[in-house]
Amino acid sequence: MARHVPPAPTEGELAILNILWQQGASTVRQVHESLRGNGNTRYTTTLKQLQVMAEKRLVDRDDSQKSHVYSAAIEESGTKRTLVAGVIDRVFDGSVQKMVLHALEARDIADEELDEIKRMLVEREKRK
User: For the whole model, what pTM was predicted?
Assistant: First the structure.
């Protein structure tokens, strides 16, 4: 039997997934409260978006309690890897080097973060 591959999440769906990945299983109210910092989202909009995401199999819904509890149905690292690969292909003509250079130029980076990136590059080189 073929495995269902959910579609890539939209920007709004990704915001909800990030909340679920960080907080774990959450009620609509908890997700809504976390989203409120991102603008003026209505509770009913959050509910509808979670319902659509459940239909797309991006989230799972637990109906066993009075309040519906949602959890991410897709893995965080795999989803982010796929999204980044798509950006590399579409925006940077498949060049990881171009993507990294643009990322480093786009934002200020703390020395500690830059040191960690260097360490990770050395570790990756050792594994080759």
Answer: 0.82
Q: List beta partners, residue 72.
A: 59
Q: Tell me the per-residue pLDDT of 94-109, one tens digit each, with 9 for 90 and over.
A: 999 999 999 989 999 9
Consecutive H or E run containing 59: strand 59-62
Long-range contacts of 108-117 (CB under 8 A, 24+ apart): none
Within 24-127, residue ranges assigned H as helices are 28-35, 43-55, 76-91, 96-106, 111-127
In 3-state terms, what secondary structure has residue 71?
strand
Beta bridge partners of 30: none
Whole-angstrom Cα distance, residue 22 to residue 6? 20
Give yes or no for residue 11 having a pLDDT over 60.
yes
The identity of residue 16, as a single letter, is I
User: Buried b / exposed e across 91-118, counting CB within 10 Å, b at 16+?
Assistant: ebeeeeeebeeeeeeeeeeeeeeeeeee
